[in-house]
Every structure is written in structure tokens, then in C-alpha cells.
Design a protein that fits this description.
Low-confidence stretches: none
Strand content: 35-45%
Largest sheet: 7 strands, antiparallel
Structural class: mainly beta
CATH topology: Immunoglobulin-like
Number of domains: 1
Number of helices: 1
Distance between the termini: 16 Å
């Protein structure tokens, strides 16, 4: 199963102080297993003609989340992060690092 997480990075500061670096993305499941981020080039392409109409209707255009950001005050950047997990797993938490020193943990609904 492919899990697509959309993240938004917002600068609440009054100015751009430094380049924000995002890395070490991990997805934790209900069973406590950890999965690393993957990239579209790691997936096997499926021809559109092999997809059902429902899949095509629900398709989302992938926008990769930049990992090195400089964001102006009050502005934001959105993007996606991909994971591949077994179909019997349930995603629970996304964890990543900001500037190599801050760990961010987000519960998934």
C-alpha cells in the first residue's frame, strides 16, 4: 500500500533566519513498525489503461516536498512524502527531523 502524506511548512517568524532542512522521514504503524520514505522513481509504473475508473478519479498529482527551504515570513510551502507499507499495516505517526536537531512527530488520522 502506498501512503501519501501532504505536509505544509509555515514560517511564523518575522523573517527568514536560516535554510530549513527536512530529512529522516519515517512512518510508524499501529504495530510499531517503521518505514522509510520512498520516491516515485522507486515505484513500478502502472499504465493508465490498466486502472479502474475509480482509481483514476481518486488520483492525486504528486508534488514532492522540498527538503531545503527558505520561507518568507507568514508564507508556507506544501508538498508530499511517500511511503510503501504492507496492506495489513495501519499508518499512525509521521516522524522527521528539522535542521538535524529538532524531531517532529505528527499523529495521522
Amino acid at each position: 500500500m502506498i501512503v501519501l502524506a501532504e505536509l505544509e511548512v509555515i514560517n511564523f517568524e518575522s523573517e527568514v533566519k536560516e535554510i530549513i532542512k527536512l530529512d529522516d522521514f519515517k512512518l510508524l504503524t499501529a504495530r510499531g513498525r517503521s518505514y522509510e520514505r520512498i520516491y516515485p522513481c522507486m515505484l513500478t509504473p502502472v499504465p493508465v489503461m490498466n486502472l479502474s475508473g475509480g482509481v483514476v478519479e481518486e488520483a492525486i498529482e504528486y508534488r514532492e516536498l522540498p527538503t531545503d527551504l527558505a520561507i518568507a515570513s507568514g508564507e508556507s510551502v506544501k508538498g508530499h512524502v511517500l511511503f510503501e507499507i504492507p496492506s495489513d499495516e495501519e499508518p499512525r505517526r509521521l516522524i522527521f527531523r528539522v535542521n538535524e536537531r529538532i524531531v517532529v512527530s505528527v499523529n495521522l488520522s
